[in-house]
Design goal:
Distance between the termini of chain A: 37 Å
Order of helices and strands of chain B: HHHHHEHEHHHEHEHHHHHEHEHHHEHEH
Strand content of chain B: 5-15%
Distance between the termini of chain B: 57 Å
Largest sheet of chain B: 4 strands, parallel
Structural class of chain B: alpha/beta
Oligomer: heterodimer
Strand content of chain A: 5-15%
Radius of gyration of chain B: 21 Å
Number of strands of chain A: 8
Radius of gyration of chain A: 20 Å
Number of domains of chain A: 1
Strand order of the largest sheet of chain A: 2-1-3-4
CATH class of chain A: Alpha Beta
Shape of chain A: globular
Largest interface: A-B, 48 and 46 residues
Shape of chain B: globular
Helix content of chain B: 55-70%
CATH architecture of chain A: 3-Layer(aba) Sandwich
């Protein structure tokens, strides 16, 4: 079995592991978004479960009797699977920590609560350049720490928190090292595989994860490359590639290109920046999660700094073209796309905007495939 | 003698004969800047305004008058800026008190306005001609297909078409949707780098049914944020507002609110004596600053109370006594044909009135804390549980026969919870709740004919329930 798929196999055991843990009295904590530090959940002695599934139209559609159809299919999907009875984990969770930043995620929190799921909200002010906003988020994390202590009956101590921060930092470092292999002209790992690898890392058994990631790195480091030729190098940008939503990355790579970098807000490990392990750990967590990472598109202001980061990735990873992968009716990403497209155009780089409502029926796929193939072809022609 | 449709328009919108001569050049210039043709004005005078607003009432004409004046004034903002006046914008909904305080402190030095709102109300509500602005914004990069908000498109287009200048500061109230504030960033990043913004936001992280105005921590956070914003704005435009002036404005705001409460109580009388759109427009000064002053709107409100009182005495209504009444939280004044269509089918549509909480004294003395408390009492702003409680109270207090939700399909906050709210409210009150997908500001996607069947069937249900 390829080394990445070993992790995949382990990740697929996640629901069964959670069921077993629950029977053994271990608390299970679900969380949404990118602002809920799993470090706190681990330090409380609970098992984190990231709610990040998507890629099928049925789950977002299941929410339509309760929610506007022009909401993000990704946020709708997080409860849609549960409503369809297709989420084996949701009903096991002792608490779901819901990130409340933009409208889509905040409404998801409303739905979780409406359906009487045990919900705890963490407010994330999107006007992030003010001291009072940072303090709000910091205070929200302090409340979360206390709540998790109540849920597990085990208040989170400093040592436990430090240990979990160190462990998460290690995972991030492993992933960062693997991602850096893609700086090579012929990367040994495809973008599709790297995205899957990150998703597996959310669900693998924590005790084995670091060792497994190190093995992935060693194996990849020794291999020559996905192909012998230099394929067009693509940067995949947008909101999220959900767990299970692999069609677009696959199509890009099947069309003869290679995804060498991602610029995604969610569903990924933000592994280029670690959390400090000295001093006030809560402050370190808040600072790392809120201030030090590339701000998500909902933050304001963010688009100038996001464009700079994108341009940096383009240079670092020798990117030949950008695919903007947008989910239907995500209004802020739609606006950002226009802003970024202009900046990318100034760089003279090809830019393709794709939109998905997780509808990958045969009729929907044909035009998608054609657009991607034409885009890749145009890059190949530019290079020749 | 050839007819002058512009004179007719000003008469219909409440200008006195003696005012028309002086105001006409300003109106003509404004209508040119807004690209309104004589035919547009004729259509408004002969058809659109009389069929959608009760222009026979003087108070209604005076309400329209305030909007015409404000929009004409808005088109002068370019000149104001050239003359050194500081330009301060905002978006709906906001606490207007801060803008009024700025205006009170430096009336000649500051322009305050919510450009997209007045353009939308007048261009769509009065002339049914917002589409050219929306199409311009779409050409500029706010896509048609993603269901963006027409107000945000209008703001962008107004700048692109040089109807308005860059602001010295745009104090953006992002307390409802994400798109409102992000549109300012869009305008700045894409095309107008001098579009200067201060953003005020608060996370929607309160558990359902939390009475947010009673959570001190939340009131204090919002108050601190309002203060931070107000100080930032003052610094940007070099105007200092004495604390007392802000207090005076909050006191005035509350007295206006109480007066509006009286008016809304009269609206609950059967037969309903006044139209829903007109009634809602009277609440504007609470959320929107008028650069031309609030006095005219206050006079219109007093006149409306008088006229409504007379109608109540005469038992005169816009439909016969006993007609079903449907509550709609924000009556669609920009698409007044929606209200007309319900009326044609024998059903009245209007906003609710003040809640007990809304009319009760504020807990705080500090104007920032008061402003935050007022805000967090608002039914459309808070979590859906608290919102549903307030809607239920209004439905029962003001004798409605049901509730209508919808027409905010472009708004990922205001529109996203309508279906949930409908179900919670129905459960709480036993009254039917309906939902119509539509657009509050424009009707390119949801035309009158497209919605007619839905409206007719809702009206039939209400009438049958009333009989049964």
């Amino acid at each position: 079995m390829p080394v990445i798929e070993e992790l995949g196999a382990d990740a697929r055991l996640h629901p069964a592991r959670l069921r077993q843990a629950k029977q053994n009295g271990v608390k299970l904590v679900g969380y949404t978004g990118r602002f809920i530090p799993a470090e706190l959940i681990l330090a409380a002695g609970a098992i984190p479960h990231f709610l990040g599934r998507g890629g099928e139209p049925e789950a977002p559609e299941a929410v339509l009797p309760y929610m506007l159809r022009f909401m993000s299919p990704y946020s709708r999907a997080q409860i849609g699977y549960h409503l369809l009875g297709m989420d084996p984990v949701m009903k096991l969770l002792d608490v779901i920590v819901a990130q409340c930043d933009d409208c889509h995620m905040s409404r998801l929190a409303d739905l979780l609560e409406y359906f009487k799921l045990p919900t705890f909200r963490v407010g994330v002010p999107t006007d992030w350049d003010k001291e009072l906003s940072f303090k709000y988020y910091y205070d929200a994390l302090v409340k979360l720490r206390s709540r998790l202590g109540e849920v597990t009956g085990r208040p989170i101590g400093e040592d436990a928190l430090r240990r979990s921060i160190v462990w998460m930092n290690t995972v991030r470092e492993c992933l960062h090292r693997i991602s850096s292999l893609r700086l090579r002209p012929n990367p040994p790992i495809s973008g599709s595989d790297f995205i899957r690898l990150q998703h597996y890392a959310f669900s693998c058994e924590p005790g084995k994860l670091v060792e497994s990631l190190n093995r992935v790195y060693s194996k990849m480091n020794d291999s020559k490359g996905v192909t012998s030729e230099r394929l067009p190098r693509i940067l995949l940008a947008g909101h999220v590639v959900a767990i299970g939503d692999y069609t677009v990355p696959r199509l890009i790579e099947e069309a003869g290109a290679l995804i060498v970098a991602e610029f995604l807000d969610e569903g990924v490990w933000h592994c280029y920046r670690n959390v400090g392990t000295e001093g006030d750990l809560m402050f370190n967590l808040a600072r790392a999660y809120y201030l030090e990472r590339v701000p998500p598109t909902s933050f304001q202001p963010s688009w100038d700094s996001r464009a700079k980061w994108l341009q940096q990735l383009v240079r670092d990873f020798a990117v030949d073209g950008i695919v903007w992968y947008q989910l239907s009716f995500e209004e802020i990403y739609d606006m950002e796309c226009a802003v970024l497209a202009k900046k990318i155009d100034e760089m003279g780089l090809p830019f393709l905007k794709l939109e998905s409502s997780y509808e990958y029926a045969r009729e929907a796929m044909a035009p998608l495939v054609t657009r991607i193939e034409s885009f890749v072809k145009s890059i190949q022609l530019r290079r020749s | 003698m050839a007819r002058d449709v512009h004179t007719d328009f000003l008469k219909l919108t409440g200008f006195e004969d003696w005012e028309i001569g002086e105001f006409m050049p300003q109106w003509r210039l404004a209508s040119e800047r807004l690209k309104l043709t004589d035919e547009d004005v004729r259509n408004a005078v002969d058809e659109w305004l009389p069929s959608n607003f009760e222009t026979g009432l003087l108070s209604v004409r005076k309400i329209l008058n305030c909007f015409v004046r404000e929009t004409v004034d808005l088109t002068k903002a370019v000149d104001y800026k050239k003359n050194g006046v500081k330009i301060v914008y905002g978006i709906l909904p906001a606490m207007s008190v801060f803008y009024y305080a700025l205006k009170l402190a430096a009336p000649e030095k500051v322009y305050v306005g919510f450009p997209d709102l007045f353009l939308a109300v007048v261009m769509q509500g009065f002339f049914h001609k917002l589409a050219p602005l929306l199409e311009d914004a779409e050409q500029g990069g706010i896509t048609y297909g993603c269901r963006h908000c027409a107000l945000n498109k209008t703001r962008f287009a107004a700048r692109r078409m040089d109807i308005i200048p860059d602001p010295d500061i745009s104090w953006i109230w992002g307390l409802v949707c994400d798109e409102g504030p992000k549109t300012d960033e869009f305008i700045k990043c894409l095309q107008f780098p001098n579009w200067n913004t201060y953003v005020l936001r608060i996370p929607r992280d309160q558990p359902l049914y939390t009475r947010e105005d009673e959570v001190d921590e939340r009131v204090r956070y919002l108050a601190a944020h309002m203060k931070d914003g107000f100080e930032y704005v003052q610094k940007q435009i070099g105007v200092s507002v004495p604390a007392q002036k802000l207090k005076d404005v909050v006191t005035f705001r509350q007295s206006y609110f109480q007066k509006l409460g009286q008016f809304r109580k009269l609206m609950a009388v059967d037969p309903q004596p006044y139209g829903g759109a007109e009634a809602y427009l009277l609440s504007y000064p609470l959320q929107v600053p008028l650069n031309t002053g609030v006095e005219r709107m206050e006079q219109a409100l007093e006149l409306a109370i008088k006229e409504v009182g007379q109608r109540v005495e005469r038992k005169e209504g816009i439909l016969p006594a006993g007609s079903p009444k449907l509550m709609f939280q924000i009556t669609p004044y920009c698409q007044p044909w929606i209200i007309r269509m319900f009326k044609e089918n024998g059903v009245l549509l209007s906003a609710g009135g003040a809640t007990k909480k809304g009319m009760s004294p504020l807990r705080f003395d500090d104007p920032y804390l008061q402003s935050a408390e007022i805000w967090l009492r608002g039914a459309t702003i808070v979590n859906i549980g608290y919102q549903a409680e307030q809607i239920a109270e209004q439905l029962l207090t003001y004798n409605f026969d049901g509730m209508l939700f919808g027409f905010f399909d472009f708004d990922r906050w205001l529109g996203s919870d309508d279906r949930l709210l409908a179900s919670i409210v129905e459960e709480k009150t036993g009254l039917p709740s309906f939902y119509i997908e539509g657009d509050f500001w424009e009707d390119r996607d949801y035309s009158q004919e497209g919605l007619r069947t839905r409206v007719e069937s809702i009206c039939e249900i209400l009438k049958m329930r009333k009989i049964g």
